[in-house]
């Protein structure tokens, strides 16, 4: 029996993560520090994001379309 985990999936650092979500590195750092994006801190110096974390952030920024009555 095999189980799938996130350890073999690619991760993003600040520059690649920022490019993926369409933000500057500074904006991504601010969002991560504010707790708006999940992240992995490795050794206190390195930060990595999973694709699922970045996708969840993008989903949280989504604004549902409104319909005009007239």
Structure description:
This protein is an alpha+beta fold and 70 residues long. It has a single domain (10-60), classed as Multidrug-efflux Transporter Regulator, Chain: A, Domain 2 (Orthogonal Bundle), CATH 1.10.1660.10. The protein contains 3 helices and 3 strands, in the order βααββα. A hairpin with a 3-residue loop joins strand 2 (40-42) and strand 3. Helix 1 packs across helix 2 (25-33). The model has no long low-confidence stretch (mean pLDDT 87).
The outline comes out as: elongated
Named CATH architecture:
Orthogonal Bundle
Residue share in helices?
Answer: 25-40%
Low-confidence stretches: none
Largest sheet: 3 strands, antiparallel
Name of the CATH class? Mainly Alpha
Q: What is the count of β-strands?
A: 3
Strand content: 5-15%
Radius of gyration: 15 Å
**How many structural domains does the protein architecture include?**
1
Count of DSSP-assigned helices:
3
C-alpha end-to-end distance: 57 Å
Q: How do the helices and strands follow one another from N- to C-terminus? A: EHHEEH
Average of per-residue pLDDT values = 87
CATH topology: Multidrug-efflux Transporter Regulator, Chain: A, Domain 2
Coarse structural class: alpha+beta
**Spatial order of the strands in the main sheet?**
1-3-2
Protein name: Helix-turn-helix domain-containing protein
GO molecular function: DNA binding
Organism: Agromyces mediolanus (Corynebacterium mediolanum)
Domain Helix-turn-helix: 18-61
